[in-house]
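Handout, section 4.2: multi-component inputs.
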Amino acid sequence: MAAITEHFASGDSFIHRIDPRIRLICGALVTIPLAVLNSQPPALLGLVFGALLVLMARLNLTQVLKRFMVVNAFILFLWVFLPFSLPGNTLWSIGPFNATTQGINLALLITIKSNAIVMTLMALMGTISVQNLGPAIQQLGMHHKLCHILLFTYRYIFVIHQEYMTMRTAMQARGFKPRTDSHTYRSYAWLVGMLLVKSWDRAERVQGAMRCRGFHGRFYSLTKFSTKPTDFIFLAVCLLFAARIIQLGFFPGVLP
Amino acid sequence: MTHAIIELKDVSYAFPNRGNALDKLNFHLHHGEKLGLFGPNGAGKTTMLHILMGLITPDQGTVELFGIPMTESKIFDEARLKIGFLFQHSDDQLFCPTVLDDVAFGPLNQGLSKEKAAERAREALAVVGLSEFEERIPHRMSGGEKKLVALATILAMRPEVLVLDEPTTGLSPEAKDRLIKILQGLDMARLVVSHDPDFLAATTDRLIAMRDGRIRPGELKPHTHVHVHEEGDVPHQH
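Output:
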């Protein structure tokens, strides 16, 4: 059976022991300024900070590398197009296309920022198990509908996947082989359609079952988090770091 | 107090485009009664259960629970908490990240404090013999374990009556035996819907049958069938 393996959620590092709510806040604090930066030096600082967090969380480095590959596969496409699509000082030319310094700098900035953000999120949010993530975002005041969506997606994605596998096996048992023809497309469309119908039916049954147990729109979680003094120190460090990034990126010259 | 726990009077219900699922059905369950209900697929058993739980509104007829007519959904919300309804598919019933969260879900909805709810949940898990499963993840458990957790989720609400919809579907013989033992240890009124004669015989005192959207009149007498299974040539009991 397929399962979402939470590679980073189990661990006993300093980061893992921080209150999940604090980790979520810190993640937002650090990554949002990083995402809107448009100069390289603070972005590089973010990269170092992210790498430090990954090391502190003692994540499995093979898994970390795997995730880097996924992110950077997308970024590779930017490197194909971006250098040629910004006007500026020509560095070299391929036929009618000119690669510019500005284009390359932008691609580099995006690469640094993305990797910095991915590392920060892996270390801070990736280390929260889904069973703690739900209550944590609820206790941070996130709208309860969003919390429900997260919870139910996590719970039922396995069930829906299993239904999908069952139906696909049944198709194969009747000699179905995917090809590039209208029969294949139509069969897949029906499969997806059936999956939607079944999910809808299931949603109705789940809702019925929840009403039978007195559900009226609100979740009460047993999970209790406690915040330690060191958690606040960590929060303060992240806050300072975010402030420094904002200062370097948007108010250069104000501070050394 | 002689009123029935569950009473359906002249209940009719039709699915759109499918004809009558229930046809002027009358049904009642009294305190202390352990009733088994069986009938062919499509006889309307599950529809009847969903109507008595207030999940479907009948086209005609009345539902009374604990002597109170269920005229609007608010009244149903109250009464439902005293009926433990076990769904046919445990995956529909279990949705929380951990077993303990799931079993505590009902008690928390009943307004209990976190500590009280957790205590109730632990008690219920002990009843079904799954005390060590608290932190397990429901969707990674076996069918039999899920069924027992689902039973614990309703026991934790301290219901006055159990309503079980095809509880043996997909269970291994071992899991079925375990469920039978647990149910035999509970002294609640119950309505068990099942295709499984052995299971009904072990967990209920009286059987009724349903066909074409009605309860068939008359009591049913248990009788023997020829059956086939492994080691059938060895003397055994059912």
